[in-house]
Every structure is written in C-alpha cells, then in structure tokens.
Design a protein that fits this description.
Elements (H helix, E strand, L loop, with lengths): L7 H16 L5 E3 L3 E3 L4 H17 L8 E3 L16 H16 L24 E2 L2 H11 L8 H10 L1 E3 L11 E8 L5 H15 L4 E4 L5 H14 L5 E3 L8 E11 H10 L9 E9 L1 H11 L2 E3 L3 E5 L1 H9 L2 H7 L3 E4 L15 E4 L2 H11 L2 E4 L2 H7 L1 E3 L1
Helix pairs in contact: 1-5, 2-3, 4-7, 6-7, 6-8, 7-12, 9-11
The protein binds FE3-S4 cluster (F3S).
The site of FE3-S4 cluster has 15 residues, from strand 10 and helix 12.
Length: 386
C-alpha cells in the first residue's frame, strides 16, 4: 500500500499512518473495524479543507471499512432557516459530496453509538470525535486513540491504525485517581465535574470513586473531560467495564465547593441567553423524551434548538416527541450543532446550555455568551402553560 500498489490515495494515507506510528513508537499497524471522521464543518475547515477532500475523492480514494462523519455546519433539510449565504452552503455541500464519493456514510453525528455503531469490548476502532472516543473507550470498552480527522480518514482508506496507546491493554490504566466528595445528581453536574477534572488530568486516564452516574451523566462527563483536557478514557468504580488503577497514581479529592467554582467559571446561572440549545453531544432518544416531557402542554417564550442525528430524530418523530417539541415552539436540527454551525449568523448573541462542552467551546467558536443551567430550570422559566 505504501509503495502505491493500490493507488495514490492509499499510498498517501499509509505514509501518514506510518509516520504517526513512528512518532508514537508503534511496532506495527493493526486492523480496525470502523473509522469516525471529524473535520466536516465548512465553518471549521473552510475552502482549503473542502478542496483537500475533493482532490482526494477525485483521485479515487475509497474507504475499505465502515466510516462515519461528524456533524456539519448546517441542517441539510432546513439550512434556509440558518441565515447562510450561497457560498457557505456550496462549500459545505462540496465537503459532503467528497466524503460520499469516498464511500463514507454521511451520518453527520458525534454520537455514532446512538445510531447503532457500538463497537464491542476489545474491538479496535479509529475514531476522531473526542466525545465519541472517550465514550467508546470508557463505556463500551472498545479501543481507540484520539485520532485527528485526517488520521481517521487514513484509517478508513486502509483499514489500519498504528498499534500504540489505548490499543494496548497494558496502557489502559488510570494514573489519576479522583475521590469525589460532592453530591452530584443531574447530568449537568457530572459534566461540571468532568470539566474540572479534565483541566487537572491533561491527557491521563482518570479513575473516579464516590459517584454513581447514569448513562446520560457518563456521556456528559466524558464529553467535558475530553474538552478541557485531552482525556481519552475514564473509569468509574463499579460502573465502567474496565477498572485498573496504577498503584502509584496521583490521588486527588474534589469537594462540593470546587464543583460550585467550576459551575460559575462555565457560566453557571449567568444572564439568561437568547436561545436554549440542547444536544452537545447530540441528544439520544432518552434525552429528547426528557425534553418533550418537560415541554408537554407548555409554550416556549423564547427559541429552543435541540440538536441530534437524523436517525434519532426519525425515532423521535415516530414516537410523537418531535410534535410535542414543535407544538411548544421548539425546533430540532439534525446534521449540525450549536458549536459547529455559525449560530451567530442567526443573530444569536447568547445561548443557554446544559452541556459543559458547549459552555467551554461556544464563546470562542461561536462568538456567543453562555449560561450553563439544569434542563428543568431552563424549560420551566422559559415556558408558560398553553
Ligand atoms: Fe457534538 Fe457539536 Fe458537541 S459535534 S460533541 S454537539 S460540539
């Protein structure tokens, strides 16, 4: 492959993978079963990224394993509601056309695990979206390093990934042990814990004691850990499939007062935003149910945008959840999110979020102010009975 027997694109992809393998001290490459590729939003990769992907597709690049992509900068069915100009729309469509031509499935979601892509324990994958990588390693027991959009694409084109880091069982050991002495109940509180610990952990594997998060809280906490830090895996005692702590691991304790400080740092209970945004990472069906239940029989006094994958939205449609949300005045956007779409072009200056990851990235990436709050509070204060 490296010598070009399978064409230009495969040879280039191998060159990149071999170089990365050498940098990280990998002894060899191994086969992986899927690739999840970031670098999809035109807002983030622009014309240069679009042209790079288009050239690759024109040169005959084709994926050899199932490959999926992250959200784009717009909802493909309602981009006319997103205040985008023609140039922007064409740029985004060129990116998607290039991925399609290469055989990538245009799933446009950061939560492939909510649409049936759930690698099993011990399965090697090459995923790029940081919140999906940490979910796969921590909750599913699958094995992935934090790939870049380019390296995940190279794996998609070759079916291979360098064998180092979290692909090796002996490296899946926590070197930071966190004893939590705070009462955390809501997913957003676990996300705040993740945000705080992510900054302390940097790129280490973290093990938590003293918490019992549910699945939604684990997802929110992982997304935050992988945003403020480069954490690719965490463990929770008696909860996650793997639990292995280095005897010499650094031990820290997190108190309630530190959670409160982090909450405030993330814009907790700041000035109310123009729009409520939910779904970072993309909402699951369960999360949409929670929103619909709170909105049932009520009318929103300000816009509410919920972001999810198209597949999960169609499940929500079938269950009548979309209808409840829309009757209340909310909108469900697919294929995109509040961070990778240019939400500021819609005249939005500030947003309410329930996600520590969105609170962390939105001010710099979307140029909006952020308020972090619990879902119940946001919906109750922004609605009235019909
Ligand atoms: Fe997903 Fe966008 Fe958040 S890609 S993890 S919803 S920033």
């Amino acid at each position: 492959m490296l010598e070009g027997e399978r064409g230009y694109a495969v040879s280039k992809a191998m060159e990149i993978l071999v170089t990365l393998g050498k940098i990280y001290g990998a002894q060899r490459l191994i086969e992986c079963t899927s690739a999840q590729i970031s670098g999809v939003s035109y807002k983030n990769i622009g014309d240069a990224g679009a042209q790079f992907l288009w050239d690759l597709a024109q040169k005959g690049a084709k994926v050899v394993i199932p490959a999926y992509i992250n959200p784009s900068a717009m909802d493909l069915e309602r981009f006319d509601e997103m205040a985008l100009d023609q140039r922007f729309i064409e740029g985004q469509l060129k990116i998607l056309k290039a991925y399609s031509k290469m055989g990538v499935k245009t799933t446009l979601t950061c939560t492939p695990y909510h649409i049936g892509v759930e690698p099993s324990r011990g399965e090697h994958v090459a995923w790029a979206e940081s919140s999906a990588v940490i979910y796969a390693n921590s909750l599913l027991g699958a094995m992935s390093n934090r790939e870049s959009g380019v390296s995940a694409l190279c794996s998609a084109l070759t079916g291979l990934t360098p064998y180092y880091g979290l692909h090796l069982k002996e490296n899946r050991v926590a070197t930071l042990l966190v004893e939590v002495k705070a009462e955390l109940l809501d997913p957003v509180e676990f996300a705040v814990l993740g945000s705080l610990v992510g900054r302390i952990a940097s790129n280490r594997i973290v093990a938590f004691k003293g918490i019992s998060p549910d699945k939604e809280s684990l997802k929110a906490m992982g997304a935050a850990l992988s945003s403020t830090g480069a954490v690719a895996m965490f463990m929770v005692e008696r909860v996650t499939p793997e639990w292995c702590v280095e005897p010499s691991a650094e031990k820290i304790t997190i108190e309630q007062s530190e959670i409160k400080e982090e909450w405030e740092r993330l814009g907790g209970d700041a000035t109310p935003g123009d729009v409520i945004t939910i779904g970072c990472p993309h909402a699951s069906l369960e999360e949409i149910k929670r929103v619909a239940l709170l909105l049932k029989g009520r009318r929103l006094k300000k816009p509410l945008y919920l972001y999810t994958s198209r597949i999960v939205k169609s499940q929500a449609d079938n269950l009548g959840l979309t209808k409840i949300i829309e009757e209340a005045g909310g909108k469900i956007f697919c294929d995109t999110c509040m961070v990778v779409s240019p939400i500021d072009r819609m005249g939005v200056k500030s947003i309410d979020v329930v996600s520590a990851k969105a609170a962390f990235y939105s001010p710099s990436m979307s140029h909006v102010n952020v308020r972090l709050a619990k879902l119940e509070k946001l919906i109750l204060e922004s609605t009235e009975a019909m």
